[in-house]
Amino acid sequence: MKKNLLAVLLIFVMIFTLAACGGDEPAGDEVVTDTVLTMATTTSTDNTGLLDYLQPLFLEDTGYELQWTAVGTGEALKMGENGDVDIVLVHAKASEEEFVANGFGVERFPVMYNDYIIVGPEAENTYGDDLEACLTKINDEQLGFVSRGDDSGTHKAELKLWTAFGLDQTANPNYVESGQGMGATITMADEQQVYCMTDRGTWLSQKNNADVDIELEIVCQGAKNLLNQYGVIAVNPEKFEGLNNEAANAFIEWICSADVQAKIAEFGVEEYGEPLFFPNAGTDN
Amino acid sequence: MRRKGTVMENIVIWFKECFTDEAILSAIGVTFKMAVFSCLISSVLGITFGLLLERYDFRGKKLIVRINRTLMGMPPVVAGLVVYLLLMRRGPLGMLGWLFTIKGMIVAQTLIITPIMTGMIHQHAVSKVPAIREFCMTMGADRRQTIWTVLKEMCHDIYFCMVTAFGRSISEVGSVMLVGGNIKGHTRTMTTAISLLKSQGIFTEGIALGLVLLVMAFIIQWLCDFLQKEESADENY
Amino acid sequence: MKIINLEKNMGSFQLKIDHLDIEPGKVHGLVGHNGCGKTILLKTIIGILTPDSGTIDMEGLEKSKMTMMMQRPYLLHDSVYENVIYPLKIRKIPVDEAKVDAMLEKVGLLAQKNQYARSLSSGERQKLSFLRAVIFGPEFVIMDETLSNMDPESERTIISLIKEIQQTRPITWLIVNHQLEQKKDLCDVIHYMEKGRIVNETA
């Protein structure tokens, strides 16, 4: 009898939980729609904590609540194309321009840039800013290299580098694709003591926070090709119903303002001793 | 989805593309290799443990059964994490160099499936083996003959458990992603490929792979049903 | 076979046999109400259960020459034929198929020879069980309610087979049957059991 009672109780709890889940969401949507801004962005802005840093400031300044989902650039743009989000913040200029040209986005605004670095099992700055020497050596000597291989902005940027120096990375049997996020890819490269390309922000936070020390070092940095421009684009409200274009525009205006740009430049300095992102609204790379 | 043409044509195109695409074929191959090996290893272990648990009474047996039941419900990602920590370069088994290889994935899968095998075999054994053992005794069979008869008589149940385990193995993603690393052409399975395709915003191939998995799940389900039906037909006195 | 001071506790039930003499070459009946411990006694004799105390003196009888027909016979997931020859295989006795066929014929199972054993009816299962028990030439056979689960005709067949065996090469039988009273002509000795004890014997 006691057992039965318990079972009945359990079932009730489950039903109520379900009902609560089902019931709350539409109600919540109705009330909050106009104050919530949904964003699709790349893992780098999330992994580094930049958005956690900006969100309360944005709420305070404008009253809008920023909710984001961090995915690869490819998926982020796809979410924009499906009208699942109000705004996208990504870093793959060509794809972004195509996104706008196809009418899914209103206009692309450059916001900031960070830079990519090549890390590997060698002494720090072995190649200085000579990216060509670094990549050529990896390719010629068939050294191990873990690529994201996930169509993300970082992956696209990496592919462009090989092409830029006329190298065919696929000829290297030790060039592998992890198909995972930046953090997982760095861990994998470190485990196997091979090279990979990463954005500096993820690298610093990974190096600082990982339980198992990362033994790789930055072997190449500072080259012009390694700069990584972020752009923000409001999803076209004429294409989809129910988008919060007002909030999206407010965000664009806000993040491009001098105040916020200065705040972006400050981000990370305290923790890592160097900024993770360099604001450059109005200009471009 | 973006392609023009009828739905049927699109489906045909999907499958043609999927089954000629090297990366997808490799993912299917890796999935099978991993599932077959982990299923075989955990079957040997699970059958042994399950039957031993049925056969012998000892102190703490209830606790072991309970722990096993907990492990049966262990989230695969946890198993993946444990195996990852064991196999990583600076882990206790780092010298094997099995991280990000199919071997590592098989270890993780074995860790996940063995408790399930053990639990299921034990459960089946409890309801069947005592009668078989008594029968063997009345027939004058010795120890070895008894074990052989038990295995032979349990083979339907064993198949059933193996099929279930195989199904678990091919559909698993968490531990495979962690331990295998989803390396294209090496450790990418159907499930991790789907998760990558989704992250790239490519849903078409993802769905095609998903369909392959579903078809396999259906076949497995059907095999299970078939085996169980045969079993239940037996018991009608 | 002599059973002396045998004790076996199963939960709250206690089997206590002070003395039971099972004379070789005779047909022994064992009668008692349900739950009086007959099956426990039989399982202890065959060795499925180990006694808590007391001795079972086999008097030179080899374990491999003993067998028992269970109340619900276990059937292998195989054909009737394979089930029947199982004890021969166990003892590595070469199988003479013609002889097995003749035995199957006698109990009326020849038509079902290659049939899946578990598709048999309850009575047929008992006949298979009987055949399986006697096929290897045992010297001590225990039957747990085998005759009670049969139609009258099958029962007659089995009884006549027992009698035939007793005439050619007498062996020891220990037969549990609740209707044994009516079959006094089959049994040489009848033992009565009550609440785990032997209460009296009639010759």
Overview of this structure, please?
The complex is a heterotrimer of chains A (285), B (237) and C (203). Chain A has 285 residues and is α/β, with parallel strands linked by helices. Chain A has helices spanning 2-32, 43-47, 50-62, 73-81, 93-101, 131-140, 153-164, 182-192, 200-209, 245-256, 258-266, 269-272, and strands at residues 36-42, 65-71, 87-90, 105-120, 145-147, 175-177, 195-199, 217-220, 227-235, 278-279. In chain A, strands 1, 2, 3, 4, 5, 6, 7, 8, 9 and 10 form a ten-stranded mixed β-sheet that branches. Chain A is globular, with a radius of gyration of 22 Å. In chain B, helix 2 (22-55) packs parallel to helix 5, helix 2 (22-55) packs across helix 7 (155-171) and helix 5 (102-139) crosses helix 8. The model of chain B has no long low-confidence stretch (mean pLDDT 88). Chain B has helices spanning 7-18, 22-55, 61-72, 76-87, 102-139, 143-153, 155-171, 174-180, 190-199, 203-234. Helix content of chain B is 78%, strand content 0%. Chain B has a single domain, classed as MetI-like (MetI-like fold, Orthogonal Bundle). Chain B starts with 6 loop residues before the first helix and ends with a helix. Chain C has 203 residues and is of the alpha/beta class. Helices cover 30% and strands 27% of the residues of chain C. Chain C contains five helices and nine strands. In chain C, strands 5-6-7-3-8-9 form a six-stranded mixed β-sheet, sandwiched between helices. In chain C, strands 2-1-4 form a three-stranded antiparallel β-sheet, covered by helices on one side. In chain C, strand 8 (189-194) and strand 9 (197-202) form a beta hairpin. The relative contact order of chain C is 0.22.
Low-pLDDT sequence parts of chain B: none
Shape of chain B: globular
**CATH superfamily heading of chain C:** P-loop containing nucleotide triphosphate hydrolases
Sheet with the most strands of chain B? none
Query: Which regions of chain C have little confidence, pLDDT < 50, spanning 5+ residues?
Result: none
- End-to-end Cα distance of chain C, whole Å, is 17 Å
Beta-strand share of residues of chain B: under 5%
CATH class value of chain C: Alpha Beta
Q: How many strands appear in the DSSP assignment of chain C? A: 9
State the strand order across the main sheet of chain C.
5-6-7-3-8-9
Count of all domains of chain B:
1
Q: Looking at this structure, what is the CATH superfamily of chain B?
A: MetI-like
